[in-house]
From TrEMBL:
It comes from Methylobacterium bullatum. InterPro entries: DUF167, YggU-like_sf. GO terms for cellular component: cytoplasm. Belongs to the UPF0235 family. This is UPF0235 protein OICFNHDK_1817. It comes from the Bacteria.
Length: 114
């Protein structure tokens, strides 16, 4: 079941979707860990990547993992804020309705694997 509207880590825009991600670099594996809630109540997608946080390697790995998981081109994903931070806002380009559907399915799939 998809998360309620208030607890989704993304927002649909005219150009696509803005996705809130909390990234752990230098992990043992690359993938989605599920959703986490910050102290301020904001919900983030918790991602891990095996790449180190050096010279953009973790960001590149994050974009590649999201592109594969959501069937997007890497060029359709860009980091809006948090380039050097653990918490990032990403812009996903494309049809918002399609992206929301893919995100909901991807997040629900991670919850089932846990």
């Amino acid at each position: 079941m998809p998360p309620s509207t208030e607890n989704r880590p993304y927002t649909a825009t005219r150009e696509g979707v803005r996705l809130a991600v909390r990234l752990t670099a230098r992990a043992s594996r690359t993938g989605l860990d599920g959703l986490v809630e910050g102290a301020d109540g904001r919900v983030w997608v918790q991602m891990r990547v095996a790449a180190p946080p050096v010279e953009g390697a973790a960001n590149t790995a994050l974009i590649a993992a999201l592109a594969e998981a959501l069937d997007l081109r890497r060029s359709d994903i860009r980091i809006v804020t948090g380039d050097t931070a653990r918490q990032k806002i990403l812009a996903l380009g494309g049809d918002p309705a399609s992206l929301v559907s893919r995100l909901d399915a991807w997040i629900a799939g991670a919850a089932k694997r846990r």
